[in-house]
């Protein structure tokens, strides 16, 4: 195949990918579900200050004969999401990724020693379960299996804007140093979904029919509980019901009146801040050491129709410092500016094959590990039936699971004049966290007689694992031998228990 035809095919592939896609590249992955693979530059992720050396090995002429020693890039980026997928791979609102808010579940389980149920929850329990003792409820038949009756859905909109830098310098031989950081503005707020609420008619209404008494309601939290009829019974037209144990007092009207309509009072009493989140902070700082070396293959076999290429194995070892603001545990809509206070370290290894007459492709595999950290006053469930919102808090130690990632890349250097393109696929998997409740004497595990043994941190650990697949598409243009402009579009291909975030990034880079 002629070289010009190959270049046209590469251009078509890269352009098509850029038109169909949008997300992120980094050697160290992140702990956050909104930005799991942070992006710092639009340059080829395997550039490693090695492009001039590769071109010289191929026998091509260069404007600058000396190899690259230093590069620095500044990138403005924007990231958005309004949907995600939960642990079961269902597309959900962002606020529902860790489970819809189960208001009935707040009445389940015992109260820890030294803590009491919020007054509004006590009143709700006395209305809904007058024959039971508060703190003993553990019957799953009062929980709607469809997660509608007694549940809130939390629609959120997420955006992140910022500036990031990426600095590289060769140290000696084939070993170099990389330093990355940034500053970001994160906003996450509850959306106002306007809808017609079907509420009970007045008692004297004809045939107890349902009425649209509040046609223009725009709630921040979407109440999924179907309204009861005027006499308090279940409305058969709702399409769901409490299975078999609906009592005269435990009905949809009472659930609405005592729990759903009191959500603001309840969150205040249990110390949950439901205000929208908007903050600016520096992000975690990253430091990497990289090694790469190229070997020319088949240079003496070209006449026998063997393709000449350069094999370039590489290894990256690095870590991050937790300099970004952490998430406040009592703010469910807050997000961290990094790994939420956890320092990390990791390594990535791979190999690229740069064919002299066509394109470069390669792959990599890597991991990122995180150090444990203690958190005070952390909301933790006291019942397996609680989700989204929890009535009590305690001190915990969180040991995040390991991140594993695999990447495959294609790179077309100067396929059109001085325009370069690259496409990269990334698969990232975060293993389950280990969450331990700190005992009353400060240890990180609780015995059966410890007051904190009523907490169930495993419920949180079970929803901590996540997986994402993304496609990164980068284009760069050399405006001079030392100055490069670039853009990167990152596409969320699939995710589980994570945001469906998309990212655009624009880079100005200088290489010397």
From TrEMBL:
Keywords on record: Signal
| Signal peptide interval | 1-26
Q: Which domain of life is it from?
A: Bacteria
This chain belongs to which protein, by name?
Outer membrane protein beta-barrel domain-containing protein
Q: Which organism is it from?
A: candidate division TM6 bacterium JCVI TM6SC1
């Amino acid at each position: 195949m002629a070289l010009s035809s190959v270049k046209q095919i590469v251009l078509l592939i890269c352009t098509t990918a850029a038109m169909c896609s949008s997300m992120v590249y980094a050697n160290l992955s992140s702990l956050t579900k909104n930005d799991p693979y942070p992006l710092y530059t639009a340059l080829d992720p395997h550039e490693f200050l090695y492009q001039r050396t590769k071109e010289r090995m191929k026998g091509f002429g260069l404007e600058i004969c000396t190899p690259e020693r230093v590069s620095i890039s500044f990138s403005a980026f924007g990231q958005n999401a309004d949907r995600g997928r939960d642990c079961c791979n269902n597309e959900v609102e962002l606020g529902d990724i860790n489970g819809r808010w189960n208001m009935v579940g707040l009445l389940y389980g015992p109260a820890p020693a030294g803590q009491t149920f919020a007054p509004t929850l006590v009143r709700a329990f006395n209305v809904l379960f007058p024959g039971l003792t508060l703190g003993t409820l553990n019957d799953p038949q009062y929980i709607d299996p469809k997660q509608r009756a007694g549940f809130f859905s939390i629609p959120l909109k997420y955006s992140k804007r910022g500036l990031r830098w990426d600095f590289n310098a060769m140290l000696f031989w084939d070993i170099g140093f990389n330093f990355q950081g940034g500053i970001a503005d994160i906003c996450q707020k509850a959306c106002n979904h306007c809808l017609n609420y079907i509420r009970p008619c007045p008692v004297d209404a004809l045939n107890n029919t349902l009425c649209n008494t509040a046609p223009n309601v725009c709630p921040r939290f979407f109440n999924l509980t179907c309204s009861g009829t005027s006499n308090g019974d279940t409305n058969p037209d709702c399409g769901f019901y409490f299975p078999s144990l609906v009592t005269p007092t435990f009905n949809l009207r009472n659930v609405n009146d005592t729990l759903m309509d009191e959500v603001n009072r309840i969150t205040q009493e249990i110390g949950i801040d439901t205000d929208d989140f908007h903050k600016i902070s520096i992000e975690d700082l990253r430091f990497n050491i990289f090694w790469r070396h190229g070997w020319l293959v088949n240079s003496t076999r070209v006449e026998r129709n063997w393709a000449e290429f350069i094999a370039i194995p590489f290894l990256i070892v690095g870590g991050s410092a937790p300099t970004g603001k952490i998430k406040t545990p009592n703010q469910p809509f807050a997000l961290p500016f990094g790994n939420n206070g956890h320092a990390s370290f990791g390594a990535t290894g791979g190999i690229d094959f740069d064919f002299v007459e066509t394109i470069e492709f390669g792959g990599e595999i890597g991991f990122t590990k995180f150090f444990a950290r203690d958190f005070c006053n952390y909301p933790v469930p006291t019942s397996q039936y609680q989700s989204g919102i929890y009535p009590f808090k305690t001190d915990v130690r969180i040991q995040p699971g390991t991140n594993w990632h695999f990447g495959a890349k294609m790179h077309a250097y100067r396929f059109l004049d001085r325009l370069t393109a690259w496409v990269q696929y990334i698969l990232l998997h975060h293993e389950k966290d280990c969450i331990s409740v700190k005992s009353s004497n400060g240890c990180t595990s609780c015995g059966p007689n410890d007051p904190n043994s009523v907490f169930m941190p495993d419920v949180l650990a079970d929803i901590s694992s996540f997986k994402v697949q993304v496609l990164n598409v980068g284009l760069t243009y050399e405006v001079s031998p030392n100055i490069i402009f670039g853009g990167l579009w990152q596409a969320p291909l699939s995710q589980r228990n994570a945001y469906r975030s998309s990212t655009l990034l624009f880079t100005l880079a200088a290489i010397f």
